[in-house]
Write a structure and sequence with these properties.
The structure holds 2 protein chains of 2 kinds.
Chain A (H helix, E strand, L loop, with lengths): L9 E2 L8 H5 L13 E5 L26 H14 L3 E5 L9 H10 L3 E6 L6 H9 L4 E6 L4 H8 L4 H14 L4 E7 L7 H10 L4 E6 L4 H5 L1 H4 L3 H17 L5 E5 L20 E3 L5 E2 L21 H7 L1 H5 L16 H4 L4 H8 L15 H14 L5 E2 L6 E2 L2 H4 L2
Parallel strand pairs in A: 2-3, 2-9, 3-4, 4-5, 5-6, 6-7, 7-8
Antiparallel strand pairs in A: 1-8, 9-10, 11-12
Chain B lengths: L14 E2 L5 E5 L4 E6 L2 E3 L3 H9 L6 H12 L3 H17 L4 E2 L6
Classes of the chains: A alpha/beta, B alpha+beta.
């Protein structure tokens, strides 16, 4: 038995497992890119939270541009038909869509395994119960801390922590499996041990300890979020200890911060290799940050192309697929099929060219520079957040930041 | 901590897949898969056969009886293998035990 979908996460600090080959054994991935097993559906960019590390693009899709209920249903049917097995409903806040129950029901009807990735603050027990009845398989709730002072400040929403705790309890009362998703950064890493205990107390099955990845909003807030090396060492120690201690009680997935790594992450399992997501307006993207790369055109489900055609043939997916596009030092690197050159969005954000080696890699000429910059920013204690919103962001007031 | 988590598989256990783990035949790839949060597992043929018996009603002992008869193999060896395989799945959180009142 082997894991065939790890989405770049590592379990218990070990090496990322990727047994994708099992399902692709009949065909070489270099020749035909099999349809991904899981797809992320970003139903909306609307969200009551304003987290400064939001993974949505700076240029958010407005409500009016979102796919309609019928359009999403058609997408779900098409995904199931071409061999996608799992659908992650995300956002923004997916429950901000009035049709969320209808969409989950449709996913169930066409045979998709559904996962709700939610901030949980809009959930009521009735809504959650309706989602369970519609066949929802798994609930993933984001937490910003283990108590309201830090958590509500990071979320930029009062009483959000309390609502999340309540929703997590309903989730387990309804016998739905729960993953606690904790996004970690300099200003909440000191709570990690308590967050792990909170996940155990909430009777969660899984905990994702995800260090912030720096794109879009998080990149804008990097100075306020970047952890110190000491914090990262301590984090790894806490995660390792907890993984052993809680074996069989709580599974912990750990996403390491790559600025301090020696080798880049195998972002998205390789560009266009095992993952795509669909934006609120229907763009089919190699990853949720891909629209930050200017100069790439992304096809829409509203175009006259099928999703399978877009995956296999569109320019954006093929541009950085496989290893043929790589310049040096990736080209002659023995790890080129291990990490596929790291992250294209990060390469673009930090070097201005998405075709460059991800600076998270020690072989990148920029590695030393970004490592030093991370250290400097972590030490500077510039703690004010730029909150995420449709107005281009709002800087935290002095009073709030003292919290 | 909920009952049904961290179970210890024995001959008397009546295991089943929890709600978040779905055994399904993938028509596109022509293989059996277990769908779980953020993961898709590819069980081998034997695992699929055993998992199909995990209905929360049959005990592990019953499964061993059935498999021993089918393959004309020693029951003890099969029981050991089945318990080992199921415990491995249980440790990963992909197997639970039927509650006292089985529906």
């Amino acid at each position: 038995m082997s894991d065939i979908l790890a989405e770049g996460k590592t379990t218990g600090g070990g090496a990322p497992s990727d047994g994708l080959a099992i399902l692709e054994s009949q065909r070489s991935t270099a020749e035909t890119f099999g349809i991904p097993l899981a797809v992320l559906a970003e139903l909306t960019h609307r969200c009551p939270l304003q987290c400064p590390y939001c993974s949505n693009p700076l240029d958010l899709d407005r409500g009016g541009s979102e796919l309609t209920t019928e359009e999403w249903k058609k997408v779900l049917s098409e995904l199931a038909e071409i061999g996608v097995l799992q659908i992650h409903f995300s956002g923004g806040e997916p429950t901000a869509r009035k049709d969320i129950v209808e969409l989950v029901q449709h996913a169930t009807d066409v045979g998709l395994y559904s996962n709700l990735i939610t901030s949980a603050v809009l959930l009521t027990k009735e809504k959650l119960s309706a989602l369970a009845d519609a066949g929802l398989c798994h609930v993933q709730i984001s937490f910003q801390g283990n108590e309201p002072v830090v958590a509500d400040r990071v979320a930029g929403l009062k009483n959000s922590h309390e609502k999340k705790i309540e929703a997590a309890k309903w989730t387990r009362e309804l016998d739905l499996p729960l993953t606690v998703n904790a996004v970690m950064h300099r200003q909440n890493l000191h709570q990690l041990a308590d967050i792990i205990q909170m996940a155990v107390d909430l009777d969660a099955d899984r905990l994702e300890v995800a260090n912030v990845q720096y794109y879009g909003w998080a990149l804008k807030n990097r100075a306020a979020l970047m952890p110190t090396i000491e914090q990262i060492d301590e984090t790894s120690r806490i995660v390792e200890e907890a993984s052993v201690r809680l074996k069989g009680i709580l599974a912990i997935d750990y996403v390491v911060p790559d600025y301090y790594a020696l080798r880049p992450k195998k972002c998205m399992g390789g560009w266009g290799r095992q993952f795509f997501n669909i934006s609120p307006a229907g763009k089919v993207l190699p990853c949720h940050a891909a629209e930050s790369i200017t100069g790439l055109e992304f096809e829409s489900v509203r175009s006259n192309h099928s999703i399978a055609w877009i995956w296999q043939n569109s320019e954006a997916f093929n541009r950085y697929r496989g290893t043929g596009w790589m310049p040096e030092p990736c080209k002659s690197c023995e790890f080129k099929e291990v990490d596929f050159g790291g992250c294209r969005c990060q390469a673009f954000a930090l070097t201005g060219d998405a075709g460059n080696t991800d600076p998270a890699c020690t072989l990148s000429p920029m590695h030393e520079q970004i490592f030093k910059q991370a250290e400097r920013e972590a030490a500077a204690h510039q703690d004010r957040f730029l909150y995420r919103n449709f107005a281009g962001g709002t800087l935290e007031t002095e009073g709030e930041h003292g919290a | 901590m909920a009952a049904g988590r961290n179970i210890s598989v024995s001959e008397a256990s009546r295991p089943k897949l929890p709600r978040h783990a779905r055994l399904k035949f993938d028509e596109t790839r022509k293989v059996w898969v277990i769908l779980a949060p953020e993961r898709v597992l590819a069980p081998d043929e034997i695992a699929v056969e055993v998992l199909q018996l995990c209905d929360g009603v049959r005990s592990v002992g019953d499964m061993a009886d059935q498999l021993a008869a089918k393959y004309a193999a020693p029951r003890e060896a099969i029981l050991t293998d089945v318990i080992g395989m199921l415990q491995d799945l249980a440790d990963k959180g992909f197997l639970t035990e039927a509650r006292e009142k089985t529906p």
